[in-house]
Amino acid sequence: MKIWQADFYKFSLNQNNSWLWKLLICDLEQNTVFEQNCQQEDASANWLIHQINQAAGDKLPDVIQIFRPQALGLFTVAAQQLGIKVEATRRTKILKQQLNKYITDANYPLAIDRPPPQPLPESLWGEQWNFATITADSLSNLISDRPIPILDTPTFLLPINLGIASTINLPGVVIYAGKQSLKLARWLAAEKPFSLNYIDTEAGKSGGLILESGLVDRWIMTTFEDEKVAQAGKIYEQRKQLSKGLHFLLIQPDDSGMTYTGLWLLKEE
C-alpha cells in the first residue's frame, strides 16, 4: 500500500502582503516526495489535484494522511476526485520531522490552534477509575490472548517495535464503566484517542485527566481533589518518560479482571 503524509498550509507573506502556501508530501520511508508553493489565489482543490498527479507519476497513493484540520477539507475534495482515501490523524511523525526544517522566528508550521478541553458527557463516564501499570510483556500477552471487542493497538506502537524492554512497566488508566462499558468504548473508538495526560493543579493537591483525540479535540475525562491521587498522577507522567511515552487506556465493565471492553495504546509525538 502506498501511503503519503501531506500538508498544505499558509507558509509566509510575499512582497505584496499576500499569503504564500506550501504543499509538502512525504512517504513512509522518510523521503520528501514533492514540494511546491503557490499564491493565495491559486490555493484550491483543483491546484492540489494537479500537484498530486504530478507528484504521483504512474501510481497514485492509496492513502493520504493529514494532521492539519485546515488542510483536511481541500485534501478531501481533491482525493475524492482522484479515488484516494484521506485519513485524518495526528500520527504523521515523518511529515512533522520534515516541517521542522521550515521553522523560523516568523513561521512555526507545527502550530495548530487547539480548543479548550470539553467535559466528557456525564452519560459516558464509568463508575470508577485508577492509574495502573502493566509490563510490556504482559501487555503483549493481553492483546494476543484475551478477546477485546474494541482494540486499537497499532503495530508501530507495540513495545517491541519501540525498543521497550519486556520488563518495563507501562503506565495507563483503567476505567471500570459497568453497564456503560461498551457505550464508552464505542464513543472512544469514534473519537480516536491519541494521548491521556495528567494535569496538576493547586500545588499537587488536585488535578485531572485530559484526553487528546481526533485532530485537535480535548476532553476532561475527570477532575479530583485528592492529594494521594494527584501524587499517583505525577508518578504516571514520570513513568511515561521511562516507557518512551507509551501508555494505555483500558475499559472494563468491572474490576474482576475477567472481561475487557476496549484497549488503546497511546503516545504523544
Automatic annotation (TrEMBL):
RNA-binding protein Tab2-like N-terminal domain: from which residue to which, for each copy?
Answer: 3-101
Q: RNA-binding protein Tab2/Atab2 C-terminal domain location, by residue?
A: 109-267
Q: Which domain of life is it from?
A: Bacteria
Q: Which GO terms describe its molecular function?
A: RNA binding
Q: Which residues form a coiled coil?
A: none
Q: Which Pfam families match?
A: Tab2-like_C, Tab2-like_N
Supply the name of the protein: DUF1092 family protein
